[in-house]
Amino acid sequence: MSAVWEKVARWTGEERIGELLMAHYGLRLEGAVPVGGVLKIDTNRGTFALKRAGEGGESHWRGVAEVGRHLLAAEAGRIPVPIRTRSGGFTFAGYVQSYVLLPWILGKPVSYTRPKDFRDTSKGLARLHAGTRGFRPSSFRLRVFWPRTWERAIDRIGLYRVAVDWSSSAGELDAAFRDAAPYAEGMAENALRYLHRSGVDPLAPEIASRGLVCHGNLHGGNLLRDERGAVRFIDWNRMAWDARARDVAQWLLYAYGRTGDLDLLAVLLTEYQRADRLMEEELSLIYALFLYPHRLMRVLDRIYGEQSLSPDRAVFHLAQAVAVEEKKLSLLRRFPDLVEGTLGWKLPRVDWLERRI
Q1: Residue 355 burial (C-beta neighbours within 10 Å; 0-12, 13-18, 19+)
Q2: Domains 17-104 and 115-355 in one fold
Q3: Lowest mean pLDDT among 68-72, 147-151, 156-160, 163-167
Q4: What is the reported pLDDT for 356?
Q5: Counting runs of H as helices and runs of E as strands, what totals does the chain give?
């Protein structure tokens, strides 16, 4: 086994990844280094990114390839399109995991130290969403139904509470859970009530007509500036068939988490609006997504559902998720005013947030 293969085997657990690359793509492995969540591999035919295919597997990456081709035809930007295997698929099975091979994108991480970095990303996101408008996947794709998803998450938290109450342990993690769980349930219920009160259906045809492809994982690690200075959206392993409000909410939350600057969020909404106009109903969806405690719910699922975090790591991640929710309260209180001042639209308000100002 070559030195390169030995390194890859240590990183992936795959002792014969070189043979698999040759068999599926005709590529000879010449070098490899971990970068973020992928392996940057050098071959006899250039540089590529090797990534675990994830839960969606072949079907997911076939969808990503279809979106990439649609964007290219619409001249609305480029995304890393998975490379076909010799057999015509988009993933291949290793001995430990399934993998997808992607082109290596030349670029540098966006620094997000300047307002321009945020503005350019907002414009790029709007262009991406506009470019996917009218896209229809070749096979049936299940869309996300937020109320059902959120109701199931609330039910899971209830089950976790029962399990913790019946547990014989009384450690730091369970104490932190008992503090966080009521808040998580309460905010998820607030998000559900707000969605019903607004009367906006995320599955409505007029919402769908504005685009139904979401990147689904917008943060600094998945955004690059290419050699031309354009912002590129990479790492499409969480792409979802959902209302674009999901991406916009996630992007605004990321920007607020980085800066705590509500004035910047007004600028970002304006930049998006100039590039691809949002409907008033979509702002209500964005606010409902702000209310829902996504990160906190995800951490609780990892701890008690998947049991994928050790107790020490679980305490740390839970504390981080709670801190994110606490920081978000100021945004929740002031976002309706920000929307009215920036776009002239009045969003329904949450009474208890108004009383806490």
Answers
A1: exposed
A2: no
A3: 163-167
A4: 56
A5: 13, 10
279 near 339, Cβ under 8 Å?
no
Answer whether 86's CB lies under 8 Å from 98's CB.
no
Residue 93, beta-bridge partner list: 98
| 6, 24, 84 from 87: Cα distances, Å | 27, 7, 8
DSSP H or E run through 209:
none
Q: Mean of the pLDDT values across residues 300-325?
A: 94
Answer whether CATH 3.30.200.20 is correct for domain 17-104.
Answer: yes
From first CA to last CA, the distance across the chain in angstroms is: 65
| pLDDT tens-digit readout, 116-141 | 999 999 999 999 999 999 888 877 66
pLDDT at 102 > cutoff 90? yes
Of the ranges 83-92, 136-145, 184-193, which one carries the lowest mean pLDDT score? 136-145
Least Cα distance to 100 among 114, 90, 113 occurs for 90
Those residues whose C-beta lies under 8 Å from the C-beta of residue 82, and which sit 6 or more positions away, are: 61, 64, 65, 90, 91, 100, 101, 102
CATH class, range 115-355: alpha beta
Check: CB of residue 272 under 8 Å from CB of residue 244.
no
- Tell me whether strands 223-226 and 107-109 are parallel, antiparallel or unpaired: antiparallel
pLDDT at 171: 84
The one-letter amino acid at 110: V
| pLDDT reported for residue 357 | 47
The contacts of residue 213 (CB under 8 Å, 6+ apart) are 67, 129, 132, 135, 239, 241, 244
Domain residue spans in the chain? 17-104, 115-355
